[in-house]
Description:
Blueprint: H1 2-25, H2 34-46, E1 51-54, E2 58-64, E3 72-78, H3 105-121, E4 129-135, H4 144-150, E5 161-172, E6 176-178, E7 181-184, E8 186-195, E9 199-200, H5 210-228, E10 235-243, E11 250-251, E12 254-263, H6 266-286, E13 290-299, E14 302-304, H7 306-320, E15 325-327, H8 337-343, E16 346-354, H9 376-389
Parallel strand pairs: 3-4, 3-5, 5-16, 6-15
Antiparallel strand pairs: 1-2, 2-4, 6-16, 7-14, 8-12, 8-13, 9-11, 10-12
Amino acid sequence: MQDQFLQLAHQFAADIIAYRRQLHAHPELSYxxxxxAAFVKATLHSFGIATQTMATTGVIGYIQGxxxxxxxxxxxxxxxxxxxxxxxxxxxxxxxxxxxxxxxHDVHTSCLLGAARILQETRxxxxxxxxxIFQPGEEKNPGGASLLIKEGVLDSPTPQAIVALHxxxxxxxxxxxxxAGKVMASADEIYITIKGKGGHAASPHxxxxxxxxxxxxxxxxQQLISRHNDPFNPSVLSITSIQGGNTTNVIPDKVExxxxxxxxxxxxxxxxxxxxxxxxxxxxxxxxxxxxxxIDIGYPCVHNDEKLHQQVVPLAVQLAGEKNISETExxxxxxxxxxxxxxxxxxxxxxGVMNRSLGITHGVHTSRFQxxxxxxxxxxxxxxWLGACIEP
Length: 392
């Protein structure tokens, strides 16, 4: 059956690329994917697949094979773009000022559309039901996955497994990577305001300097990682923004800090939140200031189910060949796929889109990000193959 899946992927390759170019030219930000959702619905309807809407711009579809009650496997793609101005000179470059598919979600959506078409064409040859999840808002808290889950996307009935792919700019086109266990970190946003007492910079003894306090606080926060966390447990705390003051001779009243906290262990994650709270308030109070702190809880770490992984990798080798399958590296980036994987067995794998000979090497979330479109057909074939063949 894998030969037919590959043949159909090759047959549909031009259409899958056309889907991607349409989406790339018309990107939409998180939770605003109205045109994208309409395009996805229309495309699925053209295949004969009925759809329903969830979480405002999410699109859900079902494809029934033989014995549709035997199993239910979910395939997920995200649809939102990023607030980045595209700098690529392409005929299908973004038509929307300051918005760009810079993380490959246009590829993810197109691959799932291609997979849906393959599965629909071959539905008499495989058993069970495949649930298609086209998800909004992966790039922005609280994450479209969490909204879909709240609306019951994993209920009545519950899928036995869920699979998603993500582009990789370090893997060559036609290659895939998989990993069991923890593969991506949790991500929480930190917002701190240090309220001091402003004054003349020449008389710091009459002020309570929030800039100096912020410097002490940033150092103290870094010590939480280096002295409270197991060094074999990956974790990152980065303060990425300091806003305060606007001239040379005035100590400001306040300083605002922003940053991110990443972890690979949920127990350490929430312990660290408590430590961040304690240290922030204690450092500020010890120096005569007040601290306001908000931690915006983001995505959990992505954990790939070990049992599912043991089944998926041989299937991937069967479709793509052993030389094209490798192990995904652990990353401190985050993905709201973690919400699904907390509830049911998940497999989050990588699709290679890098091509050095074509100069396609720029990373995601950059204005020059691009993909080798020859990767789309293999990506669609792999999604369809796993959806049809996984046996819970």
